[in-house]
UniProtKB/TrEMBL annotation:
GO terms for cellular component: plasma membrane. It is a multi-pass membrane protein. One of its GO terms (molecular function) is transmembrane transporter activity. SUPFAM superfamilies: MFS general substrate transporter (SSF103473). This is EmrB/QacA subfamily drug resistance transporter. InterPro entries: EmrB-like (IPR004638), MFS (IPR011701), MFS_dom (IPR020846), MFS_trans_sf (IPR036259). It is found in: Cell membrane. The keyword Isomerase does not apply. Residues 9-21 have a biased composition (Low complexity). Residues 28-476 form the Major facilitator superfamily (MFS) profile domain. Keywords: Cell membrane, Membrane, Transmembrane, Transmembrane helix, Transport.
Length: 488
């Protein structure tokens, strides 16, 4: 990693104070970058450790999806409130609290003795994690001048891009050399150092003119997100009856519709509906929501497939994810050239179908499949999936004006985390359904259930290409420079 730029400070919203020294600015950038790294790392590091966790907790490996869902759903729920808290209470206080809560949540996760305890503690961890990036980014914005903002954020974003890529491999390695508990315990010393560093080096800024928080709109969004997650996962995870699932789905729909009606009347809603008047933003946001369901399911499904059905160890399964990460990083620059040449519409339609077909191709996985072919399959998935993310994200953000950038970025971050949660929720529900439905599935042979799940996830993803077909065919201008941390 390169040394962060040493930049002069910009005025903040807080009371006048001495300008931070160049050393303080450098330390602050490293602090925010590390927080972003830990937040994104913990979204994937548990995936390869789920079977080991299941054995330790006396659970079935195919019923551990709530450990992943709890973290990503909590972050989605907390994103809308984090910026307001930083404005109201100050960036240093909120960032310090976020690191402290994240570290405490990690320590509690490592000491969980039941699945329910682990899920509850992952929620605590998610509350802290959700505030690390938005509040850290806000601190950078208020400390560095506008002309240096992109350079500073680019440095902060790099660890956030790396975290999800190395998470599965690091998780498998920690399970091999120690135990699954260490995927959480490694956060504790980092959290202690982070708290001390935040207290000493992070400038404290707040917005004295912050408006009233839209609590009614926020609660409607929370009810909608939580209800749909329980509806999709409750049947398999908690044994909820079909009638209750239907009620939860209706409640979720009603909450989202009620938020729309509320946002029209509310002078300052959390997310203004005017954002959806921007064609590229609305198509990109909806495309992200549905296409990312499959992409959120795959990091959960692939390590489980390798360990539960093919007999890989946690470390071996983590190593098998390296081609996905390497191909993903290598393909990012290619997609920009394709967009300029063929347009967003053409690239996203074709690539979305390609991603879906690649996901469905895992339905052909067998124990006799040559290793080289499996590696090629994983690398190809990593490449097209990374191109999908880059194209969808730049499309979503490219036409946001200065006035809508903050709200649009926050809504986009919420959708990203919600779709990750829904991806794991749907994958877990499909696995459980096919495990009980297909006659060939036994405790020793779960491969047919995985095959059917991969096929369904691929169909869902390929079907979302219809959303991108609504784009005008001549949209091919490269995206303007936006917050790099939103391009993961």
């Amino acid at each position: 990693m390169t040394t962060p730029p040493t930049l002069p400070a910009a005025p903040s919203d807080a009371a006048p104070s001495p300008s931070p020294s160049p050393r303080s600015l450098t330390v602050m950038l490293w602090l925010v970058a590390t927080g972003f790294f830990m937040q994104t790392l913990d979204s994937t590091i548990v995936n390869t450790a789920l079977p080991a966790m299941a054995t330790s907790l006396g659970e079935l490996p195919l019923r551990m999806q709530s450990v992943v869902i709890a973290y990503s759903l909590t972050m989605a729920v907390m994103i809308p409130v984090s910026g307001w808290l930083a404005d109201k209470l100050g960036t240093r206080r909120v960032f310090f609290s976020a690191i402290l809560v994240f570290a405490i949540g990690s320590l509690l996760c490592a000491n969980a003795h039941t699945l329910n305890q682990l899920v509850a503690f992952r929620i605590v961890q998610g509350v802290g994690g959700a505030m690390l990036l938005p509040v850290g980014r806000l601190a950078v914005l208020r400390t560095f001048p506008a002309e240096r903002y992109l350079a500073a954020l680019s440095f902060v974003a790099i660890p956030g891009l790396i975290g999800p890529l190395i998470g599965p491999t690091l998780g498998g390695w920690l399970v091999k050399i120690a135990s699954w508990h260490w995927i959480f315990l490694i956060n504790v010393p980092v959290g202690i150092v982070g708290c001390i560093t935040t207290f000493i080096f992070m400038p404290d800024s707040r917005n004295e003119h912050v408006g009233k928080f839209d609590m009614k709109g926020y609660l409607l969004l929370v009810v909608g997100m939580v209800a749909i997650s329980f509806a999709l996962d409750g049947r398999t995870e908690f044994g909820i009856q079909h009638a209750t699932v239907l009620v939860l789905l209706i409640l979720s729909l009603a909450a989202f519709v009620a938020y729309g009606l509320h946002a029209v009347r509310e002078p300052a809603p959390i997310f203004s509906l005017d954002l959806f008047k921007i064609h590229t933003f609305s198509v990109g946001l909806l495309g992200n929501l549905f296409a990312r369901i499959g992409s959120g399911a795959m990091p959960y499904l692939i390590p489980l497939l390798l360990q539960v059905s093919l007999g890989y160890s946690a470390f071996e399964a983590g190593m098998m994810m390296l081609p996905v990460a390497a191909a993903g990083m290598a393909s990012k620059r290619l997609v920009t050239k394709l967009i300029v040449k063929y347009s967003y519409r053409s690239v996203l339609i074709v690539n979305t179908v390609l991603v879906g077909l690649t996901m469905a191709s895992f339905a052909l996985t067998s124990a006799d499949q040559p290793l080289w072919l499996r590696l090629v399959q994983l690398a190809f998935f990593g490449g097209v999936n990374s191109m999908q993310f880059t194209a969808m994200n730049t499309l979503t953000l490219k036409d946001l004006g200065t006035g809508g950038a903050s709200s649009g970025n926050s809504l986009f971050s919420l959708v990203q985390m919600l779709s990750m949660s829904l991806g794991v929720t749907i994958a877990g529900a499909l696995l459980a359904t096919f495990t009980g439905l297909l006659p060939r599935v036994t405790a020793a042979n779960s491969l047919p259930a995985f095959h059917a799940t991969f096929l369904c996830v691929g169909i869902i993803t390929a079907g979302s290409s219809w959303i991108f077909a609504q784009l005008a065919p001549d949209i091919r201008t490269p995206a303007r420079k936006t917050d790099p941390s939103e391009r993961t």
